[in-house]
Give the backbone structure.
Amino acid sequence: MKKRNSELMEMLEYLELFALEERFKAICDSPKFSSLDSVQLLQELVAAEYDYRKEDRLDRLLRHSKLGKNTALASNLKSGNGRIYNENVIRQILTLGFVEKRLNLCIFGQSGIGKTYAAKAIGAECCRGEYKTYFTDCTTLIDELLIMKTSDPAKYNKKLKYFGKIQVLILDDFLITHINEERASILFQLIKLREVCGTSTVVTCQYPADDWGDFMGDQNEPALSDAIRRRLTSGFILNIETA
């Protein structure tokens, strides 16, 4: 028995099933071992490996999401401490149905009300739901894409496709400053591509959607800002208000 166990553990180590190997060692040293039938033993071992891999995948998704050292918790998205949430909308959002249905989410509220916190908390839940998520400052992303478009169009197209396919893209501080027509055009290309790819975009913004045209050179290209507004507001709206 000991020889077979040793051989099995060697095979598990070779296959890099480390959690399963660790659990097998623990069971072998436990009085519980003799009382388990073959199915129960298999279930114990597979569950250990499953839990390990699921946790490892979550760690990787959170790390790649750029959410930072995330302390934002979905459980904190409730009215109180000077903030009012529509808790029915919060419940719907946290089911992640908006991602499954390929809808967008706009989070509105005045400066300092907690829009970024809410976006990060929702982003973390998306990671837990095993959706690839990416958090970025909207102005920074558009500026980076503009530089690529000017200096290396091939790299720009590749990067645009990359951001188009991310399942949940969070654009923080959307239209925090005025953008010219060239930047508005890049933003439109990104949003349109994400619509084609069927991916969800989350934006946080201080200003009502009806005012977005004022920040995008609407006087010359009103159709462009209208197309962006229409696409981004075609899903859930979360307003965070002061109590």
